[in-house]
Amino acid sequence: MRILYIILAASLVASPVAFASTAVVASTPSEQAIQLDRQSRATLGIGIRALSLLLDAQGPSLHFFRKDMLIEDGSWSSVQELDKNGYATVKIVTGVPDGSDPRTEHVVIELTAKGAAVAKSLVPGP
User: Fold this and answer.
1) For position 42, which CATH number holds?
2) Which of 3, 19, 36, 121 is the most exposed place for a label (fewest CB within 10 A)?
3) In this structure, what DSSP letter does residue 86 have?
4) Which domain holds residue 16?
């Protein structure tokens, strides 16, 4: 629910006129989530799941995500959205730096300046 609040807040800040003109009262939490996802796509060009991955990938160190798990849970297209829309660069590597999981493909998501700015605006740091 926190991510829904963050998206709603970002939508209102980024485009209050667009939000007001497209707002439809949703009656169920599921409808509200769909509405927020549509608004995120209209405002930022990426859906709520892509924003969640963007927030997961922020920080000073690299973040490794198992590619097979991203595909399995349907998140791979959201990773591609981040790359396509300039919020992150995406690299596929085999293994991780600590030597564990040496034969498994991982996805490294590195935020661009644009992605870092969005992440920072949604979750302000110290």
Assistant:
1) 1.10.10
2) 121
3) T
4) 2-122
